[in-house]
Structure formats: C-alpha cells, structure tokens
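Hi C.,

You asked whether I'd gotten around to modeling the 121-residue construct. I have! Everything is below, sequence then structure, no commentary in between.
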Amino acid sequence: MEASNTTTESVYPLKPSDDERLMAVLIYVTSFFTTIILPLIIWLVKRDDSRFIDVTGKNYINFILSYTIWSAIGLLLVLVLVGLIILPIISLLVFIFHIVAIVKAYHGEDYLPPLSIRFFS
C-alpha cells in the first residue's frame, strides 16, 4: 500500500518558468501606474497559459478589492476621527504588501497579502 504524498507539495506541479514569473511580477509592478487596467489585461491575456499567472492575477484582484473595502471603511471612520489613524496605516500596508508580492512573484511563490478577502479562488 502506497502512502499519499500530501505534505509540503506545492500548488504548482512544476516550478514556474522565468516568463511566468515575469508576468506575475508585471501584474504587481504595473499596478503602480494603473491600479486595475494593466494588471487585469495581463491576467486576462495570460491566465490560460499558466496556472501560476492565473492564481497570481486572482490574488491581486482579491488584494485590490479587499483593500478598497478597507479604505472605504476607513473613510467612513474619518467621520468619527478614528479613520485619521486607520487610512495612513492602510496606505502603508498596501505599499508594503505590493513590494512583498513583487518579491514573492519573482521567486515563483503564491502570495495573498494579509487582510485580503478571497473573492476569486
């Protein structure tokens, strides 16, 4: 009887190629210029070519939607003055998690930033 190997096996059967990693990095890097349009175009064009790019694109969209919701909540809280503290923190987290996601994508790792809601799986 053969034991199943379900320990630390990656989501991806093979290590992502350099081109796949480049496209995943571009999803995050282009978001500094256009938050949704360019990353969405890259994801929609390349998602059928690579599972890694598909998962990275979904993670990015989940990340942006989640932090848009958190920012909207922060804006509402500005009315109660609590948002004056929360909005800068959210902005800083978005920047930091963008950089971390770029590095993770470059190394071929799946990364969904903390506090992200998984709208697409």
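If it helps when you're writing up: Residues 51-78 form the longest helix (28 residues).

Thanks,
B.
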